[in-house]
Give the backbone structure.
Amino acid sequence: MSARVLRRGRRVPETGAQSRPTPHRRRAARAPVVVALAPLAVALAIAGGCERTPGAGPGPYRTPTPLDAATTGSIAGYLHVRGAKPPRRHVQVTSDATCAAAHPDGLDVEDVRGDGDMLAEAFVWIARGLEDRAFAVPETPVVVDQRGCVFEPRVVGARAGQRIEFVNSDDTLHNVHGTPARSSPWNFGLAVRGARRTITVPTAEVPVGVQCDVHPWMRAALGVVDHPYFAVTGLDGAFTLGRVPAGQYTLAAWHPRLGKRQQEIEVAAGATTRVEITFAP
Ligand SMILES: [Cu+2]
């Protein structure tokens, strides 16, 4: 089984130029030449808006860089854990009747999951090397559920500017408190089962912490990046990043309990670069 990789989207970039309320308007009455030139200035501004330089602004709004499939390769590999994984933590959830009913014996939290020595629930992404490229942001939202008084999934990948929808599937009040450092935080309640609310994180950042302030054991993390080359590992610890432009990159992996590892890699056209990363508790 391979790790999940979010699909590429089709959003058309914004290319409109901003209007320019200016002193021109005040001078226009006594300067017909300026009035005559104004439409030309607007036309030039619109043309310039189509050719914004990659790297000049926030990722989601930049014009996507053309990608020639013939010059791309893949990155595939596994995340491992060296030594014994931490024991499960037992959490009492009796403070909330709905949570207690869902977990009558309390909640067994497994901070480090994975088959054998493999590492699940880690966010893998290209951390450096794509700065000169821009990518269209998927229209499809990422969905994070609050179900059984836990976040599902606990580690979530999203694109900068992509919609992230939080859903409450429980018959109790949850809240969603996001604490990014590079974007504005958010904090709202989802009072009833079926309540949902969508946010976006405009700036890339890994990780962005998310918690429910009502139930202190409820924690999740977002990996927010401004390109499509990321994955969250499953129980087999595997990940695959496809259609990567040939080049040199820093590949990083982050796990909520075990922290971050990274290594330098090279991707060649038509080839798969194999990577093994080992975490130690
Ligand atoms: Cu909650």
The radius of gyration is 23 Å. The longest strand covers residues 72-81. The chain has two domains: 2-8+22-48, 69-279. Residues 146, 149, 174, 212, 214-215, 218 surround copper (II) ion (CB under 6 Å).
